[in-house]
Amino acid sequence: MPFLVRNLILSPEEDESLLSGLVQRRFGLRAQDVVSCRLVRKSIDARRKPRVKFICTVECRLTDEAGFLARFGTDPDVQPVVEPSPPTFPTLRPEPGIVIVGMGPAGLFTALRLAEYGLVATLVERGQPVERRTRDVELFWRSGALDPESNVQFGEGGAGTFSDGKLTTRVNDRNITYILERLVTFGAPVEILYQAKPHIGTDRLRRVVAGIRQWLLDAGFEIRFACRASDILVREGQVAGVVLNDHDELSCSRLVLAPGHSARDTYRLLAERGVFLEAKPFAIGARIEHPQELINRIQYGKGFHPALPPAEYALAYNDRQRGRSAYSFCMCPGGVVVAGSSEQGGVVTNGMSAYRRDATHANSALVVNVGPADFADPSPLAGIAFQQLWERRAFAAGGGDYRAPAQNLLAFLGQRGGGLTSSYRPGVRETDLATVLPAGVTETLRAGIHHFEGKMRGFITAEATLTGVETRTSAPVRIVRGDDFQSVTLRGLYPAGEGAGYAGGIMSAALDGIRVADALAQQLSKQQGAC
Ligand code: FAD
Asked: Which of 238, 340, 370, 434 is the right S-S partner for 152, CB 3.0 to 4.6 Å?
């Protein structure tokens, strides 16, 4: 039985090939006693700055495991590994009539998981394949020419394609390893399997997405790009098909709907068809940018080792007085702020990094929670109208050409400010950000930033710039589903992922897609068994 050894320390300049030797020295073993030694976890410990170190866990196999465990089994850093049995997937009979709308992480992992059961489906994506989409997005960032169907939110790979590709989630689920391993087979860096905070980077992620597409095509899936699900056909309370681009009909009895949080027209269509929806809370704010060097110094201490990766941070503040919270979100070390609009006349910020995270600035969204009490009316779609209001104000403040409003951090805090340094393209225009954010959000944001300075000395600096507005943090609507993963009002409709309101982030959206696929396969299996 293999076992884990925890708390092995590497300094920044030491590499992982030394770990087997560390295990040997610690337990008095010879090199030939160790059959294998595999790194399974690596995290940074920056508590004693600037002496930052890596803490590693390895999985070992020895020639005499029983003898080793008899001697060291009570060591708190040693733990036998009970290997979980690999998941098994009953092969189901081919089933026509499964359609998946959306090729973000939720839709793609629904498809990959269905394939485990021997099933195939038709994938319908409103945007373009990732290669063409990348060109469309570049054109928008260069010139402000927005394609509402091919942008940072819409297109193959989904919303996270132009991102840092962080693969962290607070959800604990055995399928996390399944997802990471699948991503590695499609070209993701192998270290995502052991890093405590894995990330792929937008450059590698685009290649992974293209790899998944090819695999699905080879497995017999049909993929239709530039195809927007514009209506749902219903017969006797059950999904009967989907209308594409307002004219083509595609029959189906099971419709997995994974449209992401920005498919506002899709939410409206569901509301018109009487699908039960709920307004849900999300968060809004602005992107902050600091020189990465400054964040490194704050997090690692002066004189930190140059081999350390660009530093990250995660900050939170509970504003009891106003009943809100401010927190950092989607932090991108060594990245850029991106224009994430998907609708004409609205400015939306977000962030992305390449795999190497080697841009000069760190960015992060600083956001404050908002909810139905902030919205203009009690309708399920009121959160969308709320987002649109602030996106349009930001558009107008930026000059009406997709430049974004921006402000030096000190000026935002009412102090004498410095200049603007924003990586956002197509550009920024100096603006009082309080005019493009709700008053309650601005107040909590300011209080939060003062609190963050207490956690990270130097966070408040004339070198920091805020660019807004950040509104697409999570879905403003939930497409309510039951325990069977189907809409509570429409049989055969399987809402999935972030747009359905059941996930937030790449990993949790992929996990949700897997859950939906497993539920669908289980229902099908019962049905086929009954035939
Ligand atoms: P999406 O990824 O949004 O995919 C939905 C897909 O459905 C889209 O491709 C869309 O074009 C398509 N679609 C929508 N409506 C229709 C329709 N009617 N017909 C056909 N197709 C339709 N998360 C992280 O965990 N880590 C990060 O580093 C990270 N960075 C991000 C950076 C940016 C710039 C953005 C925008 C998001 C980032 N996120 C990140 C969030 C993450 O991308 C989302 O949580 C995740 O992509 C949600 O997955 P999903 O499959 O549910 O939806």
From this structure: 340
How far apart (Å, rounded) are the C-alpha atoms in residues 195 and 175? Answer: 17
CA dist 379 → 230, 375, 387, 477 (Å)? 21, 9, 14, 10
DSSP 416: -
Residue with tokens 């959306």: 102
User: Quick one: pLDDT at residue 530?
Assistant: 62
Lookup: tokens for 147: 């394609």
Identify the structural domains of the chain with CATH numbers, from first to last: 3-80 (3.30.70.2700), 98-278+478-530 (3.50.50.60), 281-470 (no CATH)
By three-state DSSP, how is residue 217 classified?
A: helix
Nearest CA to ligand 1 atom 43: 160
Pocket test for ligand 1, best of 132, 330, 514 (most atoms within 8 A of CB): 330
Contact indicator for 348, 472 with CB cutoff of 8 Å? yes
CA distance 324 to 337: 25
pTM of the model: 0.96
| Residue 14 in tokens | 């030491």
* Residue 288, SS3 per DSSP: strand
**Which of 526, 518, 478, 483 lies closest to 502 in space, CA to CA?**
478
The complex scores an ipTM of: 0.99
CA of 39 to the centre of ligand 1 (A): 31
Residues of the chain with pLDDT under 50: none
Name residues whose C-beta falls within 8 Å of residue 139's C-beta, 6 or more positions apart in sequence. 145, 147
Task: Determine if the peptide bond prior to 50 is cis (ω within 30°).
Answer: yes
Using CA atoms, how far residue 71 sits from 5, 28, 79, in Å, is 14, 11, 13
| C-alpha–C-alpha distance, residues 41 and 183, integer Å | 17
Residues 100, 216: Cα–Cα separation, whole Å: 13
Task: Calculate the dihedral angle through the C-alpha atoms of 274, 385, 278, 245, rounding to the nearest 10 degrees.
Answer: 40
In the prediction, which pLDDT does 531 show? 58
